Amino acid sequence: MNASLPGRIEEIKFRDGEWVEEGRAVLIIESMKMNIPLYAKSNGKIFYFVEEDEFVLRGKKLFIIED
């Protein structure tokens, strides 16, 4: 999933390689003083391309979920 807006990675909810279920919040982006959760769109193992406190621009790849 890519960032739909610029912001700071407030919290990463899972570790790399951990199993996530569809609909679970996997990370929180802080943008314009709002905390915006991003949710898993499928079941699988999650792998992140960002770290907590990192500032990201719109379009930055944040994570993937593999079966």
From TrEMBL:
Q: Which Pfam family would be a valid example here? A: Biotin_lipoyl
In terms of SUPFAM superfamilies, this protein maps to: Single hybrid motif
The segment(s) forming the Lipoyl-binding domain are 9-65
The organism's superkingdom is given as Bacteria
* Protein's recorded name: Biotin-requiring enzyme
- What species is given as this protein's source? Aedoeadaptatus nemausensis
